[in-house]
Amino acid sequence: MNLPDPAADLICPTDDIFDRAAIxxxxxxxxxxTTDAMALRAAVVSILQKARKSGNAAIxxxxxxxxxxxxxxxxxYTWLTDCLVGAAFHVATTWLHPLPTPTEGERxxxxxxxxxxxxxxxxxxxxxxxxxxxxxxxxxxxxVIESMLYILWDLRLKVGHASRTVKDCLRLxxxxxxxxxxxxxxxxxxxxxxxxxxxxxxxxxxxFKGSEREFIExxxxxxxxxxxxxxxxxxxxxxxxxxxxxxxxxxxxxxxxKYVYHVQxxxxxxxxxxxxxxxxxxxxxxxxxxxxxxxxxxxxxKRPVEQLTFDLQVDVAxxxxxxxxxxRRAVEHFMQDYFRHATSVGDLTRILLTKLEADHAxxxxxxxxxxxxxxxxxxxxxxxHNRLAIDDEEAFLEDKxxxxxxxxEGLRTGLLIHPDAMRLVTANLHLIDDDMRANKExxxxxxxxxxxxxxxxxxxxxxxxxxxxxxxxxxxxxxxxMMQFNMYHSYTVDEHTIQVISNYAQIEREELQVELPVSSxxxxxxxxxxxxxxxxxxxxxxxxxxxxxxxxxxxxxRKVAPNLGLSKADCDTVEWLVRYHLLMSDTAQKRDIADxxxxxxxxxxxxxxxxxxxxxxxxxCDIRGVGPDTWNNxxxxxxxxxxxxxxxxxxxxxxxxxxxxxxxxxKKRLRAELSDWRPKDIxxxxxxxxxxxxxxxxxxxxxxxxxxxxxxxxxxxxxxxHPDDDRDATRACFAMTDHPGIFSRMCGALxxxxxxxxxxxxxxxxxxxxxxxxxxxxxxxKPYEKSRLKRLEQMIHKTLKGExxxxxxxxxxxxxxxxxxxFRVPTTITFDNEGSEIYTIIEVDTRDRPGLLFDLxxxxxxxxxxxxxxxxxxxxxxxxxxxxxxxxxxxxFHAQNKQRTLEKKLREAIEEGAERANS
Length: 919
Fold this sequence. Notes:
The structure is a single chain. By secondary structure, the chain is α+β, with helices and mostly antiparallel strands. It folds into 4 domains: 14-209, Beta Polymerase, domain 2 (2-Layer Sandwich), CATH 3.30.460; 213-323 and 339-358, Nucleotidyltransferases  domain 2 (Four Helix Bundle (Hemerythrin (Met), subunit A), Up-down Bundle); 473-652, Hypothetical protein af1432 (Orthogonal Bundle); 657-918, no CATH class. The chain contains 41 helices and 15 strands. It has an 8-stranded antiparallel sheet with strand order 8-9-11-10-14-15-13-12, with helices on both faces. A 4-stranded mixed sheet has the order 3-2-1-4.
């Protein structure tokens, strides 16, 4: 016997997925052989479970064969679900609870609602069911529903269900927009079709009609709240379903169109004039792509996961057959496509809202109605629904410079641009040609957008989304929607660029004077704004190729800057800024800026105060533009210190920063701090340390060490933990008898308590004591709370006294999270004998993981390397550890064979630790 047909509009290779005739016959056989209801249900579940498993396997195999075919995937899963749900209903009503002569009240209609009702099912989607009855539910209906649900639950389906009358549906739909939206997409599955038809008619007549505006505003508010929660569409781990530019945005568009214009499928958007041909193609492509991604995520996760995390991005890219090419990983090409489709979704949403406004279905926002602005607009424009629109499209296109003037007028008036105007621009991007790019007036308008109105990011973001920015500067096009596959950057490259410019605009508007006093002061005193703005626009334009992006970016800037009308001198400065835009950041974060040589070398590279000012502002805006939490007091302190020291050198000469001068000043400050000490004790303290000690620490640390060393015994370990709010870290100071490997033991002790070391200094006194200062943060990158410091100190003491063996204890903690294992970070180890006068700088650039610093310092200690200081710079999953070291005789590591031996040992330590962390 055949099972009843599933929904007729779902056309799939049905027998490959669910052979209704064969399974129907098998169910009829067990029903005939079994009289016990529980035994029958168990047999039915066994048959259907096998069918579900084989059906899922068939769909998954077909989807893997055609990884972009989301339509077949989602309709196939819907078909399989219809078959399983239909079979459960058939078993419940035919064999478990037969009712030969039902009364009027003993009718039931089984409905699919929500995404299931729409016929769009991902592998792990919920099965949302509505059991519709004419009146209060009867005992028979309750038995049918209960038996059905037990079968579906035993099949491990995630079932959401409700039992309601038509009247219930109308009442609850009027009260709750989530319920109303689910009812909007109901689909009849089984049972009494007349009851389903009644619901159709009553919903339209009694609930939907006349409430269009109410529904639209509710959906738009819901969308805005969702975006705030999920983050921008440019965030690098997007939520495919709920995020900005995701599937829920497309679905919201369709819900609104269905509610207002009664569309039944996506092709109706075209037929009813809501979208043009090219726009409908973009809608279909975005919808198909996002659904395909969601399907692959569900299959890989075996859970209803919607967040496209880093590890999943790699696997989905592989399933969708992306490949490494052009110096970029497959996953980066995949994510660039993702973000471009997400941008299309935003454009299409604006277009639909324009149609709603034109039809007066959507009300203007309340604040606009209360405080409606009436700006004076230039000839050729008009205002529609408080948006800047084009008066005469033909006249507008007669002068192609109007494609730029539109954005200028938008910034001047403060008006948003009307989507119809955006449509016109997008359709005529071909007018932005070489002739227009060479036009002096076009260059003036473009630079004016950057410099004249105080909020250039608004125009740049819209120009970028519409393709105008990459049309006017073709070299910008490759970085549009480009993702950098790492944990450090939170945005795509183009969005990062706009964030950098936005940061600059905020400083210029004097909104960050407290947070960024140095940059605010530089801008207030005056800089070449044109040079700085163009440099910010171009600083990452070379990303995504095999060559260093700073070098390539400088080459591109050499071409682009003159095309924007900059003078020869300004072009040279822009090129220099792009070429060296990472210099200050790298110097501040990867080198010991307490070493005079570091500052002097940086000052030579910068050469002038003007360039120092420009580079400082660019560096601050660049770091802040990486992500919401990237800039902190620690980085601010480093950049500010490097700026102040460098400016002092540039203004007063290199001799202003000698070891002798700094040492004398440091001792003088300490004497003032220890004014209550006996002169004899002060003399002992200021005479017990070598020169590097006086250059490497602030007077507050010198005072702490003076107290720790005062009266110390040979076997004592003294520790001082104190929050350093200026650096967003906790300062940990140690004093104890010096011996080989002591720095490594301290690193191990801190690692064991879960501390993240962000900077470290270690010194040996003339009388044989080791002093070390670490700046540490907790697992969230914050200073430790004062209430935790006592316990922290006790745990560190235990390790330093040997009560806990760090090498053994670290093994259980040396684990990299699954989400972070997808990243490739090659290991690079360099030896620099020029960056410091008295130390060799060993720079280790590798994959970050728990226990790494301990492994590196233990390896150096075991090879008789004295570590004077360690500078730790973390960039997401990548870490750069720079060690200032000497050999056992106090000399630099000049010999190549010694360098090769050390490098080999360090690489072995990194690889062994990586194996532990990934096991």
